[in-house]
Write a structure and sequence with these properties.
There is one protein chain. The chain has helices at about 5-10, 15-20, 25-40, 80-95, 110-125, 135-145, 150-160, 175-180, 190-200, 215-230, 235-240, 265-280, 290-295, 295-300, 320, 335-340; strands at about 45-50, 50-55, 100, 130-135, 205-210, 245-250, 285, 310, 345-350, 355-360. The chain is of the alpha/beta class. It has a single domain, classed as TIM Barrel. Strands 8-1-9-10 form a 4-stranded mixed beta sheet, covered by helices on one side. A 3-stranded parallel beta sheet has the order 2-3-4, covered by helices on one side. A 3-stranded parallel beta sheet has the order 5-6-7. β6, α12 and β7 (about 285) form a beta-alpha-beta unit. α4 (about 80-95) packs parallel to α5. The longest helix is centred in the N-terminal third of the chain and has 16 residues, at about 25-40. Bound molecules: ligand V47. Radical SAM enzyme that catalyzes the addition of the adenosyl radical to the double bond of 3-[(1-carboxyvinyl)oxy]benzoate, leading to aminodeoxyfutalosine (AFL), a key intermediate in the formation of menaquinone (MK, vitamin K2) from chorismate.
Length: about 350
Amino acid sequence: MDLLQRVLKKENLNAQELSKLYDYDIFTLGQVADGLRREKYDNKVFFNMNRHINPTNICADVCKFCAFSASRKNPNPYEMSIDEIVSQTINAYKRGAKEVHIVSAHSPNYSYEWYLDMFSAVKKAVPQIHLKAMTAAEVDFLDRKFNKGYQKVLEDMVKVGVDSMPGGGAEIFDEEVRKYICKGKVDSKRWLEIHHYWHQLGRMSNCTMLFGHIENRVHRVDHMLRLRDIQQDKNIVDSKQGGFNAFIPLVYQNQNNFLKIENFLSGQEILKTISIARILLDNIPHIKAYWASLSLNLALVAQEFGADDMDGTIENESIQSAGGAKSKNGVSKEEMIAQIKNAGFRAIERDSLYNELQEF
Ligand code: V47
């Protein structure tokens, strides 16, 4: 039987076998992925009104791909105070943001209590805002620095009002590649355990994959399968609470950092990866074509290749843009809506948990 048919019949295949999905042309993969996304969401494209806040770029880790952290190539260290973070949240809320996405470098300077106080202060100032914060890499960093145990860190996050976790820090789970690109950071097993425990607490999170550097197709598929596996936990599925909301493939931005690559990703390879994600990740509801990473244009095309979400207005994007992406100032709500509609889709503003708020 044809490989695609075997995959759609949910035959148990390994990453090596499944990586052969890339041998199909993009139209075949796209048609199947588009069919699956339309079954669930018709021709809706989701976006949200959000604000990214990155409290500091001072980092104890040295990931080769990172252009955001203060380093020899980026000698502009900064550190925000809790007051600044709160005031950015209030201003974003007044402009219509429903979510703040707070992710930091792994700072040697902030105390454990600083994080808890900061989240409490944000939630106290704007109780209505959805607080999406702390990558699994940060949770692991705090656990190791302050000897807390990752479970305690996650439980404390719940107590101070963190609503959901973003998907950062996943990079590529393959241990060899990971060792080369981000040695010393949270390992793959722990990244997955942290999200799994968060899901057991009844909370939602996202998951990412950084691709287009030194990884190969098998590594990408292996990454997706590891995510699909933890999403299968029967207790969590039965409880109908907690789990991954969205998978976000992040295209590697190759400027101002220490990871030199020889093979640049084609648009075709990016779209195939998005289609394969939709086909393989049948238990993760949303595939986010993060426009800051893909560009607005390709993120819109990706909506015909299995993606159903663009991410949000962002207001201030520091990580992809540090690596060369044109996303520094976010995108206005008006432009986001116009672009989605011009591409022939229905523009749906959602909240952070994908409840539909308004159609434009
Ligand atoms: O973990 C770092 C990546 C991630 C580069 O959960 C890079 O809704 C490309 O996770 N080129 C952080 N990527 C961003 C992130 C995210 C973004 C938007 C929404 C959500 C969500 C999560 O950015 C890091 C890392 O994988 N990254 N450097 C780079 N040069």
